[in-house]
Amino acid sequence: MRFFAATLAPLVLSFASPALAQSTDHSAHQEAPPQAAEQAETPADPHAGHGTTVPPAAAAPDPHAGHDMTMPQATTPGSNAGREMPGMTVPPASAPDPQAGHDMSTMAAPQTTPDPHAGHDMPGMQMSWPESAPEGAAMPNIETSADNDGRPPEAPTPTAASEGPAHAADLYFDPVQMAAAREQLRIENGEIRANVVILDRLEASFGEGADAYVWDAQGWYGGDIHRFWWKSEGEGAINGELESGEVEALYSRAFTPYFDFQAGVRQRYTPDADRTDLVVGVQGLAPYWFEVDVAAFLSNEGEFSARAEAEYDLRLTQRLILQPRAEVDFSAEDVPELATGSGLTNAEFGVRLRYEIRREFAPYVGIEWSSSFGDTRDYVEARGEDADDTRLVFGIRAWF
Amino acid sequence: MQKALDRRTLLKAGGAGALWLGLDGLLPAWAQTGSNGIPPTLTTLSGAEIALAVGETPFTVGGRTGHAITVNGVLPAPLLRLREGQNIRLAVTNNLNEDTSIHWHGFLLPFQMDGVPGVSFPGIRPHETFVYEFPVRQAGTFWYHSHSGLQEALGHYGPIIIDPASPDPVAYDREHVLVLSDWSFMHPHMILARLKQSPGYFNYQRTTVAGLLSGEDRMSAADRRMWAEMRMDPRDVLDVSGSTYTYLINGHGPEENWTGIFRPGERVRLRIINASAMSIFNVRIPGLPMTVVQADGENVRPVEVDEFQISVAETYDVIVTPRDDRAYTIVSEAIDRSGLGRATLAPRPGMSADVPPLREVPNLTMRDMGMDMGGAGMGGMNHDMSGMAGMDHSGMDMGGMASMDHGAAGGHGDMNMRDPENAPPDMAVGVGVQTISPAPANRMGERPAGLENVDHRVLVYTDLISLAPNRDRRAPSREMEIHLTGNMERFMWGFDGRRFSELVEPIRFERNERVRVTLVNDTMMSHPIHLHGHFFELVNGHDGHQPLKHTVNVAPGGKVTFDLTADNPGDWAFHCHMLLHMHAGMFNVVTVRPLDGDLS
Q1: pLDDT score recorded for residue B4
Q2: What percent of chain A has pLDDT over 70?
Q3: CA–CA distance from B416 to each of A343, B172, B247, B486 (Å)?
Q4: C-beta atoms of A67 and B511 within 8 A
Q5: Euclidean distance between CA atoms B383 and A3, whole angstroms
Q6: Which of B197, B228, B587 sits opposite A189 (nearest CB)?
Q7: Inter-chain contact B481–A181, Cβ cutoff 8 Å?
Q8: Is the Cβ of B47 closer than 8 Å to some Cβ of chain A?
Q9: Is residue B302 within 8 angstroms of chain A, CB to CB?
Q10: Tens digit of pLDDT for each residue in A124-140?
């Protein structure tokens, strides 16, 4: 290492270029700044060059808190030069008067210690500190609101803290530009807009009746609290016509950490009749990680109905997920046009096993049981269909 | 500087060490000011100037190339070597088509030079140059990074060494800089979008049925039930994991094995900077004890450890003395154990040592939920919850845990996980507050999650003792309590229940006021909280020698108290340094008044 040859005064050494040494090295390492090593090797007069390298006080009007002008030893009872770590003298940093920090007695320590590096030896490292060091000192437990029933009021902010301009940077930069930058800052620290499209079920089902398809999708756009939320689902025979389909457009507002209140409209299509509904619902995450979605509908014909859905992801492995899903539908009245009786109309329970090739893309296989009840069951059977159905489903869950 | 540098070519030219020198020819603007790279003599040049250009550069790691935002075409950005006491002029040119900025992390400087758009200055417009100019008032290891958009996650960060004006109290023969970071080929905006859409998106280490049956999850069915009831994930340690991140050391992935050279017997100073966007690391060098001599650029009394945790934006300087003529592996393991960064210390290039396998995924505990299950002395204990199967969050039966420290008023008989009475009156307990720690513990003396039971020495915050005595010994004139709040299901983060975007009031300090601030973590995530323009003293029991930090990690469900002398007038950013937590709202402005002009 070429600079070790230059055992000169620190001033001279401070001009030695560590970067030069790098060229022989594989890495970004820097050679040690010479002072520390130098101090050990030439303790004769560490002050000689040192005073001249310290920058004038004017360059540093306000030394920061960590760099006290006094040596730590000076305020540490029980310390003495022999027990200090000679190599660890504290720099006076940007003390207004560079000389003030150079306590002669402390600086003499290297000279009186046979091996200035002794204190750096690994085993003795901690032992070389004054015994007054608060080893294992009790850490004060600062009370917070959780410790106090009465929630002690915080002391008011001193009035001087509110003096001066509201925005300090306006004194240095164009206030118009600063205002724009502040708005950008506000947006970039919390005002996140996001959106998602979720194809929860896109499946083909096979059972006793005709082969059928189902779609069940939803998505949202918006911020953390307010969102536009849409949902769509429907089913039909693969080689036939649409049996039922619906689209919802909702305003969604988060009202608890886990739940959103939703309100909007729904449009339904069936071969026999269409309906437009007002929708009010709640969607979110219930304890035990159940995804639930409950909604009530009031149609343009004055019919009242409701639906509740719940699903749960049981992780068998990180990517293989068993998802039970249940749905029940209710109607407040008998609506022959829609083949719906009053009371509990339909229930579905399915179990789907999906494999997340990616989080966003998972094929699945499953079984779905469905049943109709009450008068609804009669309508179904009158059409010659099974009121209880068990079907094998294959599908894809995807989102983006 | 728009020249597309072939990074590999540069590396072949002699490794990252030569990279700085290699820039000499390729980056004239920067090289001219420093002459031969970054010699400490730089500071002795009056009016030292450094030119930095922010631009887009291809970045290759693990055989794949993506787009990075770089400074002077390199990732990490060039090492700046300054000298305490000098004045520095840094001309930063924006070659992007969007605004940029550079924040000098940990610097005590005039606020208008701090580099936070919307707080300190308007930002740097595309194709414009902004000149930062300020006196360098401190020494140590620091770093710099963008404070615009999410550029920091794309490579816009670099190290700074400031040599002390007076003899360095730390003796060493050689030094290396280790910039730890996380790189993803997924754009950070997409990462954020995925977290908004599906908060567990990046976590492939969740508890599973398979893990239950095999016992690999180390968690009973009853514990799972309890976590599930609370809608909390005991494996939610980091939001973004090794499933998308490649963990870098000095811009090198694990396979590329950045290597630092030493000669056996040398005292090697490692200046370690966590420049990650979203990753906290546990750092160790198997076979080589490390003596921590500096934290966040401030000297501390040497403390020898075998492993330490470095949160985002923290820096630690350690001394190692490799005595054998062999290679040592530097491991920066993500705290969720989803991946690691790896580098090598070796006597010669081309050597390598064993890379230890990833250790088992830590399970969070009730302590991470802010339930104080004992005093600070529990640091080494395994917080197993198996005896607490009956818990539910409305009325926990903890009768079986007679030895517990009943820190909360009213004991544990009715531990409400979201009781506004456990927060300051002005906290907004809304959608963005999933939980409120019912009994937050001071965890500064505890080993971090996953290191409770390792059979070697682990640094804890109470080990940090400032080398210099604290300058301001006044008792704080007031106390302040700030809650770190969030909703992991919605990926919302804030202070006191508010996102910054909700037009929050700034945190106001009177100039030179001495304030004791307690940060209470109401979430299950770690939050590295950073205050610009100041150092604060951790209240960790070492009165008079409280360690000074610019960034402090607040452990899940824990609390941290610091004393602050608000001696730097102006407006300052105060935020979580988890980049996406900040972006989601965990940010505020600290004002220190009166300003200089107001004094007259």
Answers
A1: 41
A2: 65
A3: 39, 52, 38, 17
A4: no
A5: 52
A6: B587
A7: no
A8: no
A9: yes
A10: 333 334 433 444 457 88
Suggest the residue from B168, B482, B487 to mutate for an interface test with chain A (most A CBs closer than 10 A). B168
Judged by a CB distance cut-off of 8 A, whether residue B19 touches chain A is yes
User: In angstroms, rounded to a whole number, what is the distance separating the alpha carbons of residues B80 and B89?
Assistant: 12
**Starting from the edge strand earliest in sequence, which strands make up the sheet with B527-531, in order?**
B507-510, B587-593, B570-576, B527-531, B551-554
Q: Which helix (H) or strand (E) holds B489?
A: none
B129 touches chain A (CB under 8 A): no
Amino acid at A301: E
Q: What single string gives the DSSP state of each residue in B54-65?
A: EEEEEEEETTEE
Pick the more confident residue, B99 or B13. B99
d(CA B431, CA B278): 23
Phi and psi at A145, nearest 5°, equal -55, -30
> How distant is the alpha carbon of residue A155 from its chain centre?
32
pLDDT at A33 over 90: no
The Cα B283–Cα B289 span in angstroms is 11
Give the range among A222-226, B46-50, B175-179 with minimum mean pLDDT: B46-50
Q: What is the mean pLDDT of chain B?
A: 86
Torsion over CA: B431, B435, B438, B444 (sign) = negative
CB pairs under 8 A between A and B: 482
Smallest Cβ–Cβ distance between A94 and the set B81, B85, B436 belongs to B85
A183 HSE (CA, 13 A, CB side): 5
pLDDT tens profile A93-135? 333 333 333 333 333 333 333 333 433 433 333 333 443 344 4
Q: Do A36 and B170 touch (CB under 8 A)?
A: yes
Distance between CA atoms of residues B52 and B131, nearest Å: 10
CB atoms B501 and A187 under 8 Å: yes
Sign of CA dihedral B572, B575, B581, B586: negative
pLDDT at site A154: 82
A177 neighbourhood in chain B, CB within 8 Å? 122
pLDDT of res. B371: 84
Distance CA B563, CA A375 (A): 72
> Considering Cα of B192, then B195, then B201, then B202, what sign does the dihedral take?
positive
Tens of pLDDT, residue by residue over B335-378, are 999 999 999 999 988 899 999 999 999 999 888 988 865 544 44
Q: How far A246 CA sits from the closest chain B CA (Å)?
A: 24
Q: Does B553 touch chain A (CB under 8 A)?
A: no
- CA dist., res. B215 & res. A60, Å (int): 60
What are residue B70's phi and psi, to 5 degrees? -125, 165
Strand bridging mode B258-261 / B290-295: unpaired
Nearest CA in chain A to B120: A169
Cα B544 to chain centroid distance, Å, stands at 25
ipTM of the complex: 0.87
User: Sign of the CA dihedral B363, B367, B371, B375?
Assistant: positive
Query: Do A303 and A331 contact (CB within 8 A), yes or no?
Result: yes
Region A332-344 average pLDDT: 93
Confidence of residue A152 (pLDDT cuts 50, 70, 90): low
Please, which pLDDT band fits residue B592 given cuts at 50, 70 and 90? very high
Q: Which of B98, B197, B213, B273 to mutate to test the interface with A (most CBs of A within 10 A)?
A: B197
pLDDT for A155: 87
Q: For residues B399 and B383, give the distance between their C-alpha atoms in angstroms, rounded to a whole number.
A: 17
Residue B189 has pLDDT above 90, yes or no: yes
Residues paired with residue A284 on neighbouring β-strands, in sequence order: A259, A292
Q: What part of B 22-41 touches A (C-beta under 8 Å)? A: 36-41
Q: Tell me the chain A residues in contact with residue B509 when contact means C-beta distances shorter than 8 Å.
A: 157, 161
